[in-house]
Structure formats: structure tokens, C-alpha cells
Amino acid sequence: MNDSVNPRIQQRRHNIIAVSLCAAGILVNVLMGFLVSKAGLPLYLDTVGTIVVATLGGYLPGVIVGFLTNSFKAFYDQPSVYYGFLNVMIAVAASWFAGHGWLKKPAKIVGVVAAFTLIGGGLGALLPWFMEGLPFKNESLYSVLYQTGFFNQFFAHLISSIVVDFPDKAASVFLALLISHIIPEKYHKYFEIKGWRQTPMSEIDSDSRGWKGWGRVRLLSLGGKIVIVLCFSLITVSVASTIIGMTIYHRTIVKEHTRLAQGTAKVAAGVVDGDRVDEFLEKGNLAEGFNDTWKQLSNIINSSTDIAYLYVYQIREDGCHVVFDIDTDDVEADEVGSVIPFDDSFEKYIPDLLAGNRIDPIISKDKFGHLLTAYEPVYDSHGNTVCYAGADVDMSLLHTMEEGFLMEMVSVFLGFFILLIVFVLWLIRYSIIIPVNTITRCVDGFAEDEDTQEAMDEDVKAFRRLDVRTGDEIERLYQSLCRMTLRQTEQMRNIRRLSDSTAKMQDGLIITMADMVENRDSDTGAHIQKTAAYVKIIVEGLKKKGYYTEKITPKFMSDVVRSAPLHDVGKINISDKVLNKPGKLDDEEYEIMKTHTTHGKKIMEDAISTVAGENYLKEARNMAAYHHERWDGKGYPEGLHGEVIPLSARIMAVADVFDALTSPRVYKPAFPVEKALSIIEEGKGTQFDPKCVEVFMDSLDEVMVILNKYNKEA
User: Is the N-terminal amide bond of 637 cis, ω within 30° of 0?
Assistant: First the structure.
């Protein structure tokens, strides 16, 4: 197959261009961000490429650009990786705004800039607040707001971040719109990444096929259900992973700081001379070696920012006797020799402490805070425990570290989470949603168009043009439906041929039966042909004018025209003496003649009872029985009036009387056409249905063609 018309190769080439444009968007973000950083401008401009690609190419290309931009920036600006989810969220928002026409209206563009600012400045302000090591990029404005006294630290930081970010987002949107405007519109389509698994929708004749509203469902679409399942699954996995990760991280940092506290306590115990502890307690800093020991302990605590407190206690029955207590910035040291009562959390360890045994690290929460404490025995020269060196780690520092780690996980994972959702939705759209919906719509169209063979043939062609190629169960379903619709179309073609042959045979029998009746009546030359033609003119005129729309269906029209020749079938039971009398009938003969309506009704009802399903005979019965009824109720055989008279009979009444007036009889010559039309017009609303007369009079040109064809004397 020629490459130029192979849809798969065309799509592959298109997507190579789209990926290249994504790479260009990433390059624009990185370069512009790098240049403004080097220039010292108070801007970032690292979302310009993201906005351009998202607005022109949709969600997936925009999210890819947003996600990879910060991944590349992390090589020279490591904290950028944590801000990646902001770029991704801006891509999603930009695509949504573009799809809803917000970027085409100046008033709404301001709203777009505000939304981007809330994402970049609002959410972006949370990262350095919860993560250590990320700088606040708006310290000066933050200080001014905080010093006013109207805002606490958090809100001062949040507001200053939003204010500082607004000019950046305004400039980014302006540049993005400028770039989009410069790019010719015919090239915009190349920004979209396509994944067609069938004939593209643009190549389907949507106007003639009626695709409007083709994706509507009763409750929730298949795509919606998949999105819910996908989001639920990803969120469940994410939460579980986060909990597991946080649990492991918590255990790890507790172990690390436990080892740190134990090591610090052990080092501290090593610098304390156990043989002089009692002297230190008694004389304090006047004792020999006390000051040297105190300096060494001070150096130990200053060597680690994670150690909150360092001290040496002698444990006695009445509490902890202070041997050394090193000052810290926020807590003043206890005096040497002072006694500190045991805390409740230490109660179970007191016997071991009094016995001079080693104890495991203790986590306590008291007036000194939430602490992790490690004790190391200090021995004298005889190997007896004379006191304990204690090192405390502030657990609140660990909690801060955990919060920072959690924020790192969320910020990094959130961008990947959004990218994954957008990609899966893109994949589902092209691989499931569009194929299923187009197959469904074609099947619906096939079911709706069974009235004509031409429509069914066109449906089969349209169905095969879909060319679904998902390579899975959907493609198998499509192939099965292709075979089924083709077979059904051929079956319907054969059925229609048989039906047409049957209908022609039935029509022939009807004409034969009508001819048998007509041949007995010497005055009704070509009567059945003319009345049938007039009936066809009237029923088509009613249809055209929109009269009796609920009644006049294509089937009704066909049944009436086909059955018209049988309207006088009851005359077969009228004797030749009455039927062919060369003169006007007397009253008794007229009553006999009137019975041809009831005889015709019975003949047709007998036929209907023996020929199941032949509904067209019902209209033959109606015409045979009631074509002599009058609109004003003065007709026969039942004296029906108005719309109570079957419509087919009201139509036949006009056709039958007009033909009788314009045809010669043994007892009268043919009336002139003008006279006949005058009589028909006079009967409007009394003898005839006014609407039937109206359309008959409006169709005189057609009427005259029929009259001239069969009545040479007219």
C-alpha cells in the first residue's frame, strides 16, 4: 500500500511531529527559565511552552511538557523537581480553558491568569513552608506583610507568594498567546498526539450520519466508569504506598537518631571520670576536672544539631541528681546537685537505673517536650555504675523531617499521578470509548434505516469504513458485526425481492377481482383506474400539507392506493337487473344498490380473517364499507359523520363522486369538468371532508392528466 495513504503511517508521522513539538515546548520552558534567572528578573517564565502546547495539543502533550520540564531543570536546579506538579496542573488548566474558549475572550483571560497564579503562587507557597531546604523567594514582601501585624507567618507568606507570582503568570500567558497567534492555524493540529484505532472521526460524514449527541448515555458513560475505577485504584495504591513509605521512613529516622543519641551518650560517658562524680556533685565547678569535662560535653552537643539536650545524672531513690547539664539556646541548665523528680514515663525503668543496669532508649512526652532519650552508664575504676550520661533528641524535629518527606513524596508523585491519569484517559479514549461509541452509533443507524434497502447498503458501507483495529475484543466484536450487518442486509434484500413479487401478485389479484366487478357494470369504464389515481393524488396532497400526520404514514398511503380498486367489490352481489338497469333506479332498486357497501365490507372481512397479516385489506374494507358516508352524517350505510368516517373512505368519497360526475352513464351524459368541480366544491363540509376537497382542488393539473388519459369525452 502506498505510504501516502496508509493511515497508520500517516498517524506515526503526525505523532513524530507532535513529540518534536513537545520537545520544543520543553526547550522553551527551560531556556526562558534559565535566561530570566541569569538576568536576575523577578520572573520564572518556565510555563510558556507548557501553556502553548496544552492549548494547541490538549491535555496529554501539555502534561508531558509540564512534567518533563521540571525533570530537566532539576539537573541544574534540584528543587525544581518538587515544583513539577504545579507545571502539570497548569497544563491541565490551560487545556481546559482552551477547550472552553476562555483564551479567546479578554475578560476571561484575566481569570486564566488568576487561576494560574493560584496554582503557581498559592500551591507553590506550601512547598517551602513544609519542606526544609526550599528557599522562600519573596522574603522582602513577606517581611513587610508580617510586620504589619495583620497576618500570621503562614498567610503573610501565602499572600506575598501569590502577589509575586501574578506578573510571571501574566507574562507567561501573554507570551503563550503571542506564540500561538504566530503559529499558522493550519499547523495547530500537529500539536495533538493521536492514537486512532479506527478511521478518524474527521473522515466520517457526521452531517449525513447524524452523529450529534452520539455519546449520550442514560446514567454514566463507560469512560466515566473507567475514570472512577482508575482514580480509585491509583489513589488507593498511592495512599497505601505513602503510608508504607512514611512508616518505613519513620522507623528509619527513629533508628538513626536512636543510634545518634546512644552514640552521643556513650561519648559523653567516656569523658566523665566516674571516680570524681561524688566530688563533682559536692563541689560543682570547684572540683578538679569539672570545667574541662563541662567543656568537652559542650563540644559534643554543639557538634550535632539533632541533639537537643546533653546531661549527666546520678540516679537515686529521690530522683535524678544533676552532675552536668549543658545549656541550650532555649532551656537554661539545671544547677549541679539539684534533684529532678522522675517522670512518669521513666517509672518502669527506675529499678534498672538504681541497679546501674543498661536500659533501652526511651521516648517520652513531658514538660521538656517530646523526646527520645538514650542513657549510657558511667563507671568508676571498680566497674560500678555511679551515674548516667543522657542524650535527648527532640522528636518534633523528626516530625518536621517526616512532614518534609511527605511533602516531597506528594509533590513528586502528584505530577506523575496526573501524567498517568491523562495518559490512561487518552489511551482509553482512542482504544475503547471512541470505537465503542462509533460502533454503537453505526448499529443504531443500521437499525433505524431498515425502511429502505439503499439506506441499509449505505449503513453497511459506513460501518466497514470505520476500520476498527484495536487488536482486542472490540476489534473482534466489530468484525462480527460487519459480517452480521452484511448478511442481514443481503437477507433483507432477498426478503424485499420476495415481498415485491408477492405484492405484485396481490395487486394483480386485486385488479383482476375489481375487473370482474367492473365488467358486470356496463357504465363504469376505467372507473377503478381513475379512482385509484385520484386517491393517490389526494392522499399525497394531504401528506404534503401536513394534514392528519398521525394517520398518514408511508404504509397507510401504500395501503390506500393498493386497496382503492376494491372499493366497489360489494357490487358483485348486486343482480345484473339492478346493476345494469338502463335508467334511473327506483326507490327499491336504490336500496338494493346501497347494499353493495355492506356486501363489500363482509367480503373484505372474510378475506382479512383468512389472510393473516394482510393489513392493507383493512383499508379496502373501510373504503368498500364507508365511501358513501357523508361528512354531515347523512350518508349510508351507518350514517357516520366527520372524522368518525375512516380517512381512506373520506378520500375515496371525493374520488368516486368526481369520477361518477365526469363519466357518462346510461341515465346521464358526463358533466363538464367545471360543473363537476363546482358540485365537489359545494359538497365541501357537507358531503366531503373539507381538507380532502382542498387538496383535490389544489391538484387540478394532475387530476386533468388522469381525466384526459381515461375519459376522451372530457
Answer: yes
d(CA 112, CA 90): 10
Show Cβ contacts of residue 652 under 8 Å, excluding neighbours closer than 6 positions.
531, 535, 564, 567, 623, 627
The mean pLDDT of 633-653, rounded to a whole number, is: 94
Q: H helices of 131-221, where? A: 139-147, 153-182, 206-209
Task: Identify whether the C-beta of residue 375 lies closer than 8 Å to the C-beta of residue 262.
Answer: no
CB-CB contact of 54 with 226 (8 Å)? no
C-alpha cell of residue 111: 481569570
Closest CA to 265 of 297, 305, 295: 297
Q: Is the pLDDT of residue 519 over 60?
A: no
Rounded mean pLDDT, 529-552: 92
- Determine whether 38 is exposed, middle or buried from the number of CB atoms within 10 Å of its CB (0-12, 13-18, 19+): exposed
- The phi and psi torsions of 214 (rounded to 5 degrees) equal -70, -20
Model pTM score: 0.61
Cell of 358: 543498661
How far lies 28's CA from each of 32, 54, 75, in Å?
6, 14, 16
| Segment 646-684, tens digit of pLDDT | 999 999 999 999 998 988 776 678 889 999 999 999 999
Distance, in Å, from the CA atom of 641 to the CA atom of 643, rounded to the nearest integer, reads 7
Q: What are phi and psi of 216, to 5 degrees?
A: -75, 140
Domains of the chain: 3-194 (1.10.1760), 249-401 (3.30.450.20), 521-710 (1.10.3210.10)
Q: Which residues fall within 8 angstroms of residue 310, CB to CB, at 6 or more apart?
A: 264, 268, 297, 300, 301, 326, 389, 390, 391, 392
Give first-to-last CA distance, the chain, whole Å.
69
Instruction: Determine how β-strand 319-325 pairs with β-strand 339-340.
Output: antiparallel
Cα dist from 438 to 463, 467, 637, whole Å: 9, 11, 57
In this structure, the strands spanning 369-379 and 319-325 are: unpaired
